[in-house]
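lol ok so funny story. i was supposed to be doing the assay writeup but got distracted and ended up predicting the structure for this chain instead. priorities right. anyway since i did it might as well share w the group, maybe its usefull for someone
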Amino acid sequence: MWKRIDHQPKIKAGDGARAGRVKAVGSAREPAMVHPPELSEFQSFPVCEDISRHIKDVGAQLVKKVNAIFQLDITKHGKTVLQWTIDLKNGPGDMYPGPARLPVDTVFTIPEPVFMELVLGKMNPQKAFLAGKFKVSGKVLLGQKLERVFKDWAKF
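and the output, tada:
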């Protein structure tokens, strides 16, 4: 973003570089994801880490059943604060923080409280989606397979 530091009403011929002095005040690009100062303030972070460990243990079986890549954009006050990728399409399966390294089949944009209720089984995903509590882009029906992954994790 550029900010003009001298305010002249008109630019006259011959004013040269003096007339258009500008000063850079920051980057024009905003980061895609806000990096929180402390991840401990988010309830979903340790849950995602635990699900990630579970996927590392049983991922090969899940890859055979699911065959999809999901991206979870967890929001707070309308802004993405955490982003996780669940790759159940390649190799032994993986879940890692950050955007997907490969093309994603489905992206879920979920407020953190709704995400917590979904993974803990306190909210029906289909009813929540139809009520507009979270957004899905891509292959919407794959969400049912992700629900099974969360239910499988909750058993342990």
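The mean pLDDT is 80. The longest strand covers residues 79-88.
back to the writeup now i swear
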